[in-house]
Amino acid sequence: MGRLSGKVAIITGAASGMGRATAVRFAGEGAKIVIADLNKEGGESAARDCRENGSDAVFQKTDVSGEADVKAAVDRAVKEFGRLDVIYNNAGLGGATGPLENITVENWDKTLAILLRGVFLGMKHSIPAMRKAGGGSIISTASIAGIQGYAGIHAYSAAKAAVINLTRSAATELAKDKIRVNCICPGGINTPLIYGNIAG
User: Fold this and answer.
1) How far apart are CA 81 and CA 75, in angstroms?
2) pLDDT tens-digit profile of 88-110?
3) Burial of 30 by CB count in 10 Å (0-12 exposed, 13-18 middle, 19+ buried)?
4) Full-prediction pTM beyond 0.85?
5) Is 156 a catalytic residue?
6) Phi/psi of residue 152, nearest 5 degrees
7) 38 near 12, Cβ under 8 Å?
């Protein structure tokens, strides 16, 4: 019996990087997984990896900045596997970079839509399903950049700082429902999000 046997998890941004590694690990611990990502080829491949690691998994094409897509991912988990116990709000991008005065409003808004609105929507739509399950766990990827600022990644830093404090406020509100809310704050990790965007 794995530590997550009988549990159902949604992992956003699970077609690659940290999300994919987490999905495969969760599957190895017995969880059934919904891979929620825009990348269909990578998402289907990640779902196969999860199945090969001993559990069931499906891919759900999801734009985390779109409310209908996030709700559909939650609905898919409940329809496919009967419940929802965990959501890992992990989808991300580097987003708007460069000097502050050069950042366009469009790039700023897109960055916050994915990094912050996506976390909000994941929380919002998972709560009713977790209440029905008797509790659950909401996890979000923040960043060390949300704790201390870095020049050139202003939108990213601002969004991740907001994720940290949203986690605190949500944890306070949802404790009565036995829903734990946590975030992780990694430093630089060798994933496509970081190193795929660095010029050689």
Assistant:
1) 10
2) 999 999 999 999 999 999 999 99
3) middle
4) yes
5) yes
6) 95, -15
7) no
